[in-house]
Write a structure and sequence with these properties.
Strand content: 15-25%
Number of domains: 2
CATH superfamily of the largest domain: Bit1
CATH architecture of the largest domain: 3-Layer(aba) Sandwich
Number of helices: 8
Distance between the termini: 89 Å
Radius of gyration: 25 Å
Number of strands: 6
CATH class of the largest domain: Alpha Beta
Order of helices and strands: HEEHHHEHHEHEEH
Oligomer: single chain
Shape: elongated
Length: about 210
């Protein structure tokens, strides 16, 4: 059998294969930025993983498949558990930061505290990675601290700082049935280790 492949044809074939491989490696990317496969994320969430963990695993495996990402998580889970063990053993607390500019009455403050506590608690129990920290918090008396902030902008700033540190938070917006206008941001709840939470709210005064 005679090989009739010309140098030009061979070069084109090599270039096509190179482009194909590059396309496979960049699957799920836009403008050089990685974008996780949303279908894969949905499938992985059903196994109890939160979105952040799913994206991390898909990035590590370059969106190959759900199976590849899950295998990566299982292989790396023990290492992450060892790194997080010290943090998980630290005392945890929940802080409630109230917007004092609204001048809420005692009853209104109590109601908003309930909204903030239940709101963040529901988020914590719905995310697998927070279960151990939540159990530790419950074991040591479910510590809650009420603090004050001067206005709505301060609450927003505190929530941004908590998010940057990876701390769960919940910002309550009032329905406006009593005392204050609808949409008013009344109280922010933040949860995490005492050391981490103090980095966000340590300079605030008690309510």
């Amino acid at each position: 059998m005679v090989d009739v492949t010309t140098p030009s044809m061979s070069a084109n074939r090599t270039e096509m294969e190179s482009l194909k491989n590059k396309k496979g490696m960049e699957s799920g990317s836009k403008n050089g930025e990685f974008t996780a496969n949303e279908n894969f994320i949905s499938a992985m969430v059903e196994f109890g993983y939160d979105r952040e963990t799913c994206v991390k695993a898909l990035f590590a495996t370059q969106n190959q498949s759900v199976e590849a990402a899950l295998e990566w998580l299982l292989e790396n889970e023990s290492e992450e558990d060892e790194e997080d063990s010290e943090a998980e053993d630290e005392p945890h607390k929940m802080v409630l930061v109230f917007n004092t500019s609204l001048g809420m009455g005692v009853g209104k403050v109590a109601a908003q505290a309930g909204h903030a506590t239940l709101g963040i608690y529901r988020e914590l129990i719905s995310t697998a990675k927070h279960h151990e920290s939540l159990a530790l918090w419950e074991q040591y008396g479910e510590k809650k601290i009420a603090l004050r902030a001067e206005n709505e902008e301060k609450l927003i700033s505190l929530q941004a700082a908590a998010t940057e540190l990876g701390l769960p938070s919940y910002l309550v917006e009032d329905a406006g049935f009593t005392q204050i206008p609808s949409g008013s941001k009344t109280v922010l709840s933040i949860f995490g280790s005492e050391e981490s939470v103090n980095k966000v709210t340590g300079k605030l005064k008690l309510l």
